[in-house]
Design a protein that fits this description.
The protein is α+β, with helices and mostly antiparallel strands and about 250 residues long. It folds into 3 domains: about 60 residues, no CATH class; about 100 residues, no CATH class; about 60 residues, no CATH class. The protein has 14 helices and 6 strands. The longest helix has 17 residues.
Length: about 250
């Protein structure tokens, strides 16, 4: 894609701004975000060849800077390019899809099973319990799209995929800063951990350690740094309790 196609000209830019402003003012698209967030969603929609209202009316979402696409829209985008998607098997236990490209005939299968959902920590969620077949189809479609039709869907993911990951992974405290720690003894780590554990009942101690380790792994920090981050931000109890409720609900 050249720059003429990638960047809107002045007239198109103003048109997208106007649509964003009016969409925000009408009060119907609060779930998408403010005027500026709506603008970024519409820019993404433009690059993907999606109409503005198709994007705003449940087609696209921007989750922490990443684009989610509804399963219906993703399927439509692929089929509009002349490619095909065939259902091989689909029930509440597994979904297997087969895709075929129009241009070169390449064929591929992708699947997502209930066992995959369990491994990913998704099966305990209410949406997955109630709409297992739909959720399995969405994930199988996303896998197939990324592997066979990446030129159609770009870097987008299917609805619920990014949001679900954000719900699992603890969010970094706002005041978190990179820390230079030359050496920390085991005694210092143990003492600091005991400070955190002392704020919670004994039965929650393993969950506290798991939560801190997830944070450390996700942001490529040490276990000790994760404790210092939360100590500085003062948000540990709030973040931990919210995460704990999600784990118990699964």
């Amino acid at each position: 894609m050249n720059n003429a196609l990638a960047i809107p000209d002045d007239n198109e830019f103003k048109t997208i701004e106007m649509i964003s402003r009016r969409a925000a003012a009408c009060g119907l698209y609060g779930g998408v975000g403010n005027e500026h967030k709506i603008f970024m969603v519409l820019l993404s929609a433009r690059e993907m060849g999606v109409k503005p209202m198709e994007a705003l009316n449940g087609g696209l979402w921007n989750i922490q800077g990443k684009i989610e696409v509804s399963a219906r829209l993703m399927s439509s985008m692929i089929r509009k390019q002349g490619h095909s998607i065939r259902t091989i098997e689909h029930d509440s236990k597994i979904c297997i899809l087969e895709g075929k490209r129009k241009d070169n005939g390449d064929t591929m299968r992708a699947q997502f099973s209930w066992d995959d959902a369990i491994k990913a920590g998704l099966a305990g969620r209410e949406t997955w319990k109630k709409f297992a077949e739909d959720m399995l189809y969405n994930r199988a479609l996303s896998r197939l799209a990324r592997r066979l039709f990446a030129d159609v869907v770009g870097v987008s993911s299917v609805e619920g995929e990014i949001k679900g990951e954000c719900e699992i992974i603890p969010q970094e405290p706002v005041n978190s800063q990179p820390l230079e720690i030359e050496h920390v003894s085991e005694d210092e780590i143990r003492d600091k951990l005991n400070e955190f554990l002392s704020m919670h009942d004994v039965e929650d101690h393993e969950l506290v350690k798991e939560f801190l380790q997830k944070y450390a792994n996700h942001f490529s920090k040490t276990f000790y740094q994760s404790m210092l981050d939360y100590e500085k931000s003062g948000t540990f109890i709030e973040k931990f309790e919210a995460w704990k409720l999600k784990q118990l609900a699964q």
